[in-house]
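Weekly sync, protein design subgroup
Attendees: M.S., D.O., the rotation student, P.L. (late)

Item 1: inverse folding check
M.S. brought a backbone from last month's batch and wanted to see whether the design step gives back something sensible before we order anything. D.O. pointed out we never logged the input encoding, so this time it goes straight into the notes. Structure tokens as presented (315 positions):
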């Protein structure tokens, strides 16, 4: 098996050529019709398209009733029509239309898809409708009725539950301008010359909304949550560095936090005359008190309260 492997050695010039080609594909996409532009055509394309693309960028996301971006759409994100986002119209060189919602029709020949519509994935395949059929067995036009002859499904409706706790049918795909997104208090990142970036603004955009700690996702946890005493149930990394954490807190004058950690260590010890049952019950009640720290992870204040401990989120 090892003898059949091919080891490619690329010099610096070859590596720079690969980087240049990747840059080309990110900017041009499929606009060259499969025939690579000449250097002159490439420069002319960039002068014509890139300034307007950076000015008229559209942000695409899949949101729940709370307003959280549960999924930020990127170039390779699949549509209901089974084509990727980059295969839809995303450039508006003459300006963004005034009509709402903004339609992003599919550019693939013969596809009747009128606008991009996100469907969640389970593993490598899209979720099924409640009629047990996949999206590609439904019409790509709203209301996405089932095309199976014997099926009485009147529209695609999945029972899939998002990580935010809401069903898929309570979510919608929205297309918004930079100004509209800023008005919602969500990040827009930096202007980019790349095609079909959708809602991608950074590495954290690749995560689901309930795991993102920026304003477009769950939001940053409160300081009270982060400053919980380090207990025996915490991640080994925290327990291994408890002394350095204490030294840092003492250096910046957070002696009260050190006292809490000491109190936790004392509580973890069995008290004189305490039975095993009494000890475990006391420790259970103490841990339960930490777990009922309720916090609102949305600036809008309309997300459900989340009960957890530090391990559930960061580890």
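Designed sequence read out in the meeting:
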């Amino acid at each position: 098996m090892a003898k059949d492997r091919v080891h490619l050695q690329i010099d610096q010039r070859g590596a720079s050529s690969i980087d240049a080609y990747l840059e080309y594909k990110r900017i041009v996409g499929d606009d060259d019709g499969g025939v690579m532009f000449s250097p002159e055509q490439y420069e002319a394309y960039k002068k014509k398209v890139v300034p307007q693309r950076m000015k008229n960028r559209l942000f695409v996301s899949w949101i729940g009733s709370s307003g959280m971006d549960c999924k930020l759409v990127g170039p390779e994100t699949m549509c209901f029509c089974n084509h990727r986002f980059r295969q839809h119209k995303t450039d508006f060189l003459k300006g963004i239309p005034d009509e709402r919602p903004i339609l992003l029709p599919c550019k693939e020949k013969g596809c009747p898809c009128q606008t991009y519509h996100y469907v969640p994935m389970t593993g490598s395949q899209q979720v099924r409708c409640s009629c047990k059929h996949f999206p590609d067995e439904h019409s790509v036009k709203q209301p996405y009725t089932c095309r199976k002859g014997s099926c009485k499904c009147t529209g695609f409706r999945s029972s899939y539950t998002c990580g935010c706790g809401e069903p898929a049918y309570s979510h919608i795909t929205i297309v918004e301008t930079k100004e509209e997104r800023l008005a919602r208090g969500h990040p827009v990142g930096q202007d980019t010359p790349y095609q079909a970036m959708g809602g991608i603004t950074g590495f954290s955009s690749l995560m689901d909304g309930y795991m993102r700690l920026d304003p477009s996702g769950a939001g940053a946890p409160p300081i009270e949550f982060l400053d919980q005493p380090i207990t025996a149930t915490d991640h080994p990394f925290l327990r291994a560095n408890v002394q350095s954490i204490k030294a840092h807190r003492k250096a910046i004058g957070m002696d009260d936090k050190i006292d809490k950690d000491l109190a936790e260590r004392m509580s973890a010890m069995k008290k004189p005359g305490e039975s095993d049952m009494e000890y475990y019950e006391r420790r259970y009640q103490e841990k339960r008190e930490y777990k009922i720290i309720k916090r609102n992870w949305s600036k809008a204040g309309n997300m459900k309260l989340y009960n957890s401990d530090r391990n559930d989120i960061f580890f």
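Discussion: The longest helix spans residues 12-28. Strands lie at 58-63, 69-72, 121-122, 125-126, 172-177, 294-295, 306-307.
Action: P.L. to compare against the previous round before Friday.
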